[in-house]
Amino acid sequence: MAALFGGLPLALGSGVGSELRRPLGITIVGGLIVSQFLTLYTTPVVYLFFDRLANRFPGHREHEAEQRAELFPSMEVETTR
To answer: pTM to 2 decimals?
Structure first.
């Protein structure tokens, strides 16, 4: 966010030499906005993909529950069999 605001004077500036700096500022600001939206979109999508992939292999979760029960016998852990 700070880098985006730091690039705004380059993108919006006027004055001597601004025609040389403006493309750089537009590129910086545009790239940061696009990368932010891609990150906010792809992170949940990848998480959901791996969650659904894990749901296809239910035996693995039972094995994890059994291991947790062995490590922490005082805690009640439900296993589905």
So the answer is: 0.55
